[in-house]
Specification:
two-stranded antiparallel ribbon; alpha/beta; 8-stranded parallel barrel; binds phosphoenolpyruvate; 274 residues; binds manganese (II) ion; globular
């Protein structure tokens, strides 16, 4: 991959660790879970408590939602940021939330521990540059039409502005297959790791679009070397205002989280070549 500079691994053990409190992404397996969108304080807090009780350290939830239709729910915006601040205060979970507009970066960074850049914005260069100037780690999702090389060049935009803390996220790409919402490209995990020192996580929720497929693809991602997972879970999936088909129920989340964390511990022993 010609032209990549800052994302390229310099030697086999070269790995960026992203410290957050006692944990570090890239060293400890990161389980991020929460609803697609923040819908209410009750919904967010109930889901966050569930997530925490299963041992996850990170809570996700969208305040600003990139929706295909302008007539769909766009997120609660500022109100959701206040709810996320409360979740963070009351649970101690690290908050991950999407930022869509360069003008919102500093405001979202006041509340979020990690800024998410969504698949649709992977090539929004002013947004990448703005997050590159801020002090929060960035979770950068692969665009559904983007090659791994394009993903890495987008990460370069952030790194080049001085922010070294980028987490790459495979979330499925568009193929001719229509049974699944996207085609989760699990080969991207070991491929990216051959090239880059950045941590790589996987989103099997958007990657498949079906709750029933999230558990097996989560385990497959762990086995393929993912540094973490980001999962959508809702306390009442049938009432979810966005992405309800892919939301794990509390009981399915519980079972899946346990299996994921068990398997991740199995793989935690350092492998040769790392
Ligand atoms: C999301 O995480 O809620 C989301 C919109 O994901 P993506 O950008 O991968 O579609
Ligand atoms: Mn979603």
């Amino acid at each position: 991959m010609e032209g990549l500079k800052l994302t390229v691994r310099q030697h086999p053990g070269h790995k960026t660790l992203i410290p957050l409190g006692e944990t570090a992404i890239g060293r400890d397996f990161a389980l991020i879970a929460g609803p697609c969108s923040i819908e209410s304080e009750d919904q967010a807090l109930a889901t966050a408590r569930l997530v925490k009780s299963e041992g996850a350290l990170f809570f996700r939830g969208g305040a600003y939602k990139p929706r295909t239709s302008p007539y769909s729910f766009q997120g609660l915006g500022e109100e959701a940021l206040d709810i996320l601040a409360r979740v963070r205060r009351e649970t101690g979970l690290f908050v991950v939330t999407e930022v869509m507009d360069p003008r919102h970066v500093s405001r979202v960074a006041e509340i979020a521990d990690i800024l998410q850049i969504g698949a649709r914005n992977m090539q929004n260069y002013p947004l990448l540059q703005e997050t590159g100037k801020c002090h929060r780690p960035v979770l950068l999702k692969r665009g559904n039409n983007a090659t791994m090389e394009e993903l890495l060049f987008s990460a370069e935009y952030i790194l080049a502005e001085g922010n070294p803390h980028v987490i790459l996220c495979e979330r499925g790409i568009r193929t001719f297959e229509s049974y699944t919402r996207n085609t989760l490209d699990l080969s991207a995990i070991p491929s990216l790791k051959e090239i880059t020192h950045l941590p790589v996580i996987v989103d099997p929720s958007h990657g498949t679009g079906r709750a029933s497929l999230v558990p097996p693809m989560s385990l497959a991602a762990v086995a393929a070397g993912a540094d973490g997972l980001i999962l959508e879970v809702h306390y009442r999936p049938e009432e979810s205002v966005s992405d309800k088909e892919q939301a794990l129920s509390p009981s399915l989340f519980q079972k899946t989280a346990r299996e994921i964390l068990d398997l991740s511990r199995f793989f935690q022993t350092p492998k040769t070549g790392e």
